[in-house]
Amino acid sequence: MRKTAPLFALLLSFLLTARAFAAESTRTLKVELSPAAAAHFRVENLAGSMRVIPATDNKVTAVATIHAESDKLANLMRFDQVSGEDGVPTLRVIYPLDRYDTIRFNSKLQKESFLSFLGGSSTNTKYDGHRVRVSGSDGVLLYADVEVRVPPVADLEATFRNVVGRLGAEGVQGKLRFDSGSGEISLERLKGEVQADTGSGDVRAEDLSGTFSCDTGSGDCILTGFQGEKLSFDVGSGNVNVRSGKARLISADTGSGNILISDSDVEIFDADTGSGDVVLESRGSRLVAVKADTGSGNVTLRLAPEATFEARADQGSGDIRTGYKDAEAIIEHRQVIGYRRGDSRIRIFVSTGSGDLNIEPLP
């Protein structure tokens, strides 16, 4: 019995894999948003991928490549313009959820993790007025890969919702929201008021301008290259990592995870983490206010060599250190609670349950 058990498990894995990679039926659906709706709209897909790119004309068009386990099932899929939330015109991939309440999503992303086919992971969600389960192993094989082309106009207002699977955009502008229940969001070269929201998955962004907010339930927010007014991060469990960001305000909140802001030029910095470290590297001359709160974690501030500041700390346990040799200690009740240097232009307040405060000059 001990010898047959591994053989049975191996056979089962082969059977499941064969099912997962079985021949698929594909079908292409194309839809064009009505001209009157092109300024404010939504695009929705349940499972698969969604990619948003610039159009070569002033039309909003979308193409959905349907993947199904049979021609009959593929032919039940539609891609229509409907009236969505609050009456917003919506391009929606419509699944036959009145017939099937569980669909199997077998994307290339899952092939990167072989065990995902065997684990039977699933997501329960509401889509198009139906409760549905998206599974890696159960249900009918049915999903759509969507490409959306949007015109290059600054007054565009749009939401792109891909419930399960990867969501990406590049080279577009406007008031844009990217929404995923479970999947990675990837953004490149966007301008305007940009929001990224995912229940589980990382958000990776590069070369953005305007304002940007990132919200993840479980996953990292990673941004490289930003210039604009405001950066905002809200992470349940995961890290915030910003490199080369120039903004008036950077606000970051994590339940558990580190906050790292490097090579930045910021005016106001506000960080809050339940458990994790906070690191700010500010090379610019605009910095005037820093507030950091950690439940358990260190706070490290690396400032310009000429920076002047007044730093105060409220600590349950931890030390205060500075690499500025001419900084003067602030003493209350015979304890060092902070340091002051020069005209105190930068106001710093740090609160830690257990953690150190380090203030260092950048090279």
Walk me through this protein's architecture:
The protein is elongated. Strands 2-10-12-13-11 form a 5-stranded parallel β-barrel. 8% of the residues lie in helices and 63% in strands. The protein is mostly beta strands. A hairpin with a 2-residue loop joins strand 7 and strand 8.
> Judging from the principal axes of the Cα atoms, what is the shape?
elongated
Helix content: under 10%
Number of helices: 4
Strand-residue proportion = over 45%
Structural class based on helices, strands and sheet pairing: mainly beta
What's the end-to-end separation, in Å?
Answer: 66 Å
Residue runs with pLDDT of under 50 for 5 or more positions: 109-119
| Alpha-carbon Rg, integer | 25 Å
Indicate the mean pLDDT: 91
Order of helices and strands: HEEEHEEEHHEEEEEEEEEEEEEEEEEEEE
Strand order of the largest sheet: 2-10-12-13-11
Annotation, overall tally of beta strands: 26
Q: Could you say how many structural domains there are in total? A: 2
Sheet bearing the most strands, described?
Answer: 5 strands, parallel, barrel
Question: Which keywords apply here?
Answer:
363 residues; mainly beta; 2 domains; 5-stranded parallel barrel; 4 helices; 26 strands; 8% helix
Summarize the structure.
The protein is mainly beta and 363 residues long. It has helices spanning 4-20, 71-74, 108-111, 115-119, and strands spanning 25-32, 40-54, 61-68, 78-83, 89-94, 102-104, 122-127, 130-135, 140-150, 157-164, 167-170, 173-182, 185-200, 203-218, 221-237, 240-256, 259-275, 278-282, 289-296, 299-303, 309-315, 320-322, 328-332, 335-341, 346-354, 357-361. The radius of gyration is 25 Å and the shape is elongated.
